[in-house]
Amino acid sequence: MKKLMIFLLTLVLISSCQRFNNADKKANHAERIVLISKQYTEIIHALGAEKDVVAVDLSSIYPEKVKKLPTVGYHRALSIEGLLAAKPTLIMHDGINSLGPDHIVKQIMDLEIPMKTFHTKAKDVASTKALIHEIANYFHKEAAADSLCKILDNQINEARKNATKFTEKPRVLVVHFGRASNVYLVMSNGGAVGKMIAWAGAEMAVPDTSGMQHLSAEIISEYNPDVILLTDYGYDRLGSDEKIKELPGISSTAAALNNRIYRVNECDMVYLGPRSGAITLALQKLIHQR
């Protein structure tokens, strides 16, 4: 173990994990914070509390400027070299079970780098605001949190008010692609996206609440969604609306026949945060347009 520690510390001097070859240009940090949570990353930046953030995980892609920071790998595929290169004094993550692989997590814990997890889990509007306030209290950004939460409330209320004017609730299928042997990875009703679709005045085509799941082309066809939201990864791989509409299982749906397949950002769909009201309003326009 002692030899391992010496080897790992040596890597700090010779290694770095960078995104787009961007080195850590920040100097004289009072704290050196590594964020391993895209939700925390967005909230901390929205609060204006990012001063001491020196690295993030690869899932942290919002706001745009975080792409200039060095990265430490994906949260479930962390790089010990990248982490040590960031020389963190604090690691923030949203739960030890979301980190991996296990042997890297053990190495991090053996190095005794302080770690911080916020207790609140954002499952609805109230708990999202509570998480924003909890993070704000840690960084002494209470006034910024009040402003963010007020905006979130106003936007969600606007979406809900708009929803009362619609006479129909379109059935929406959210696809995160991953088509292999005509099997699709889709989002179900249990997560953040289910909340936003409901606030927008629609309903999820997949009623199951167990999270993401793989569905065959036949089942997709049977669900026959009115609208399909395809995340950026899958949409960009296919490259055009016409190619998407030709996919097995999708080609026969009302969404394909009526040209109601739209590109959305995967990051916007998987957690609730300060932009969830604005995202809901944008989804509402997509879903209900004719």
TrEMBL record:
According to the record, the signal peptide region is 1-19
**Span of domain Fe/B12 periplasmic-binding:** 32-290
- Please give the Pfam families that the UniProt record associates with this protein: Peripla_BP_2
Among PROSITE patterns, the record links this protein to:
FE_B12_PBP, PROKAR_LIPOPROTEIN
* Alphabetical UniProt keywords: Signal
Tell me the domain of life: Bacteria
Any keyword Iron-sulfur?
no
User: Per the record's keyword annotation, is Signal included, yes or no?
Assistant: yes
Name of this protein:
ABC transporter substrate-binding protein
